[in-house]
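I hope you will forgive my troubling you with a question about protein structure. The record follows directly beneath this note:
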Amino acid sequence: MQARNIMEDIVKKYLDEMLALRFDICTCELCRQDVIAYALSRLPAKYVTTDSGAIQTIMQQIRVDQSSLVLKELVAAITVIGKEPRHEEGQDRNQAYKLLMQQIKADRGADFSQYRDKVLKRRIALRMRARNANSYSEYLQVLIHSSEEYEKLFEVLTINVSSFFRDAAVWDKLRTEILPELIARKKQLKGSMRKIRIWSAGCSHGEEPYSLAIMLYELLEKEEVEINVEIVATDIDKVCLAKGKAGRYDQISVKDLNPHYLRRFFIPIKDEFQIVPHVQAFVTFKELNLIHDQGVMGVDMVICRNVFIYFNRSLQEYLIMKFHGTLGQDGFFVMGNSESLLGEARQVFDVVDSSLRIYKKLILAD
C-alpha cells in the first residue's frame, strides 16, 4: 500500500481557511501550490499506509497536535510567496489598496492611514466577500456606485462590539472603589462643581456609557447631597450613535445582564428593552473622531477599552497622551484588558490596578 503524507492534507485545509479573506496577495493555483510546497518543506512528514477510515482519525489527532506549528509555517509561507510570486502579476495590489483608502477618505473624510493595515484589510475583506469583489479595484467600483455599501463598510471598519458590564472584574472595581472615590471628592465641593463628568470614547452602541450611568445612579441615590452626572459617549460610527441615543436593545444584547438591572432600568417594549429615561438622561452621544477631533475636556474619567488594538504604536501613544490632557486632576483612565500604556504615558499615569488596566493621572511638574 502506498504511503501518504497526511500533513499535506492538513496544510491544504488550513490554507483554504487562511486564504478565504486574503485579497492583498495572489491566490492563484500556482501560488497556492508554492505556499503548500514551502510549508511542507519546513514541517515534519507524517506518512501513513492504512484504510481511509483510520486516516481521518489519525489526521484529526495530528491536526490537534501540530496545529500551532502548521499555522506558523503557513503564515511564513504565505508571506514569502505573497511577496515574490513566480509569475507576473496583472495588478499592483498594494497600489489598489492605497487607491481604495484614498477614495474612502475623499468620499467620507475618514482617514484610516494610521490604523493597522492588517486589521483594516481583514475587515474590508468581509465586505468584499459579501459583495463578490475579487480585488480592491473591484470593491472600489462597488463603493463608487453604491452609497449604501459605505454604511455597511463603516460598520465593520469601526469598533462596534460591546455589551453591558463587559469584563465583570473591571466593573466591580469601578463600583466598589473608583466611582465611590469620585463621589467622595465631589461631596467636598459646592454648587455646580458637584458634577461627575466621564468620557466613554469609542462607545459603540451605548452599552458601556449606560452601564456607567446605571452604576452611578445606584451609588448616588444613597447620597444625601445632589451630584450631577454627565457621561459623554463618542464614536465615529453614526449608526452606532443613533442606536445608543435611542437606548433600545434586543434580547441578545441584554441576555447576560443582571436580572436586577434588567427589571429596574429597562422597560420591555415588544421584543426589545428600552433604557429608563432618568438613566438615559445621564448620557449624551456625540460623533467624534479620536484622531482628528478635540477630546472631551475636563473629565473625571476616560474609559476607552479595546480600541487601541486597531491603531499603530505611534497613534496609541498620541491618543493616550491626548486622554491625559482631557482629564482633570487625579482623573482615572480605563483601558481594555488586552492593551497597555506605552512610551511617555508610563510616566504620566499612576497604576491603580495593572491587571484591570486602570490608571490615575499624574500632574507633571513644571
